[in-house]
Amino acid sequence: MTSEAGGLIGRLSWDAFPIVGLIQTPNANEIVANAAAAVVLVGVVVVVGLLTWFRLWGSLWRDWLTSADHKKIGIMYIVFAIVMLARGVLEGVVMRAQQAAGPGDGFLEAEHFAELFSTHGTIMVFFVAVPFVFGVANFLIPLMIGARDVAFPVMNQIGLGLTVSAGMMLMVSLVVGAFSTGGWTAYPPYTGAAFNPGVGPDYWIWAIVVSGIGTTLTGINFAVTIYKLRAPGMTFMRLPMYCWTIICSSILIIFAMPPLGVAALMLAADRYLDFHFFTNDLGGNMMNYANLFWLFGHPEVYLLVLPAYGIYSEIFATFSAKRLYGYNSLVIATMSIAIMSFTVWLHHFFTMGQSALINAVFGIATMLIAIPTGVKVYDWMATLFRGRIRFSVPMLYGLAFLMLFVIGGLSGVILANPTIDYQVHNTLFLVAHFHNVLLPGVLFGLLAGYNYWFPKAFGFRLNETWGRISVALWTVGFMLTFLPLYFVGLMGMPRRSFSWEDPSFHPYMIVAALGSLVILAALLSVVAQLWVSIKQRETTRVPVGDPWDARTLEWSIPAPPPPYNFAVIPQVTDRDDFAETKERGAAYPTPDAYEDILLPRNTSIGFILCVLSGVWMFALVWWIWWLAALTTGLMLVSFIAWTFRTDTEEVISAEQVRKEHEAWLDLVRAATPVDRDHEYASENRGLARPDLEVAA
Fold first, then answer.
1. 241-273 and 286-320 are packed helices; what angle lies between their axes, rounded to 10 degrees?
2. Which pTM value belongs to this model?
């Protein structure tokens, strides 16, 4: 470290702001960088202005930022993920445009392109996929298992706060300083102090450490919730398939996140304290980093895709009007994937010099993990077989997933062969495979779940026409953007290349760039769908709560659900308990008695830690030591002070619960049951006429 590090503001100076570069060397590269920074600043001003104009600050604080309600925390996770998705998609468009510019240097500098693919990967994995998965799970898990809330509501709020503050560091890096050029994996020596003395790797390190803590807390919370808070009669083999995938993902989080945190902190020790964990001198070895990172990194893939598998399982059963086929085999396959995901990490660096025996062992393990995934695909197809399939938006996402994900899975089996992987590992073939898994496998699943459960969260359905447009754009955009990369990768085009010389690559790069514009249009169509749906919400309300003729417990209560979820905790007798009671005509019983309900009170500790951790990370990135020490103390004092709070719960009286529940039951009795052919009509108020198999 330099002597300047101990100064009042460390490395922070006017040169850290992008506008200085534009003034000194005005060119396309600086215009792109400053436009990105301007979007962040204008976005902040617009949001603050709208909240002030419509006087929403009080409501935002009372109803959202201090809420410990799992449903609202889940919705905030999803909003954050969609905001970050917008940035990730825009960065992808810029990268594809740069590579489509033709042989030569294009319009970006090499360092700026390296920042783009580094921040794009970091955002899409850690700050889009993870919070989106957490948002859906937060909303659904207590509703699916018949619980009032998650096991640790305040810890849930803190996990959200830490994740958001870490994501904001990536936004700050657009305005002050620059992000890492070492890729989303942050391999040393590219992120070491000697190679990269700037602040970019430090932004990555602290964002990953803090978000990793929040992620781990959330994983513990989900696991304990499902283990301990299931409704009476809901044994493990009566859990919805989605809950099984969340159990396994939570286990992956608990065991896989610590290696990433350790690797990031060791890298920080190398950079800040002149340690040598990952250097070539004084006993260091960068392969230690590669092993630690991918010991997290491969389970991370399944941490993301398993919940999407659970979403597809629920959707295929509902929109086929059938009981999910092969439930036991799906449970075993899910658990097998979770266990085997810890045995394959080394295939991520087959090219880095291990022995042939080690490569062969990990190659075989990688091939074997495809077997339980194949079991899932066959079970889903068997569920669809002879079902009364409804081609609603969630089902369309599911069908697109089945077709496209198989391609990604097969390319993964190809890459499991170390000799083939050695040839294509550092080409765009690997980029095509990775995106072929994450887009249809994860993003399509999350968007399907968003369309499926949106009416449960907000009480009205999303616009079907715009939903179909969105499915088409995402599917076509994916195919145009990433399928050509398989071919150009086999032709030898290296990944992470900001320029190239072989003219045979050009047609593929143009198609990929056009595809990225279609993906951008797909993202805009999601916004358009929401806008149109809000305008039309009075004609699409479903207050009874079951617009799809679904099977699981969350559909047996009002839409949106009350703060306490269930007026009376249900007694579960079947795996598809709600579907079975609908078949018997006993789906909406009047309880014999009501009880007072305890709910967690609002608390500001999550928001306080969100703000303070953000300031703490910024101080560490820029070596402002006095500010780092001050915020550390404030975080400790705030948390300790919160532990002395005694008024942590509020009581919802039995009389209030009775009034609200009976008013809803009156609404149920007054509603007209709607069959599948009128699912999108205004007559659908959330009371579906059963069109399901009788539970065996």
1. 160
2. 0.95
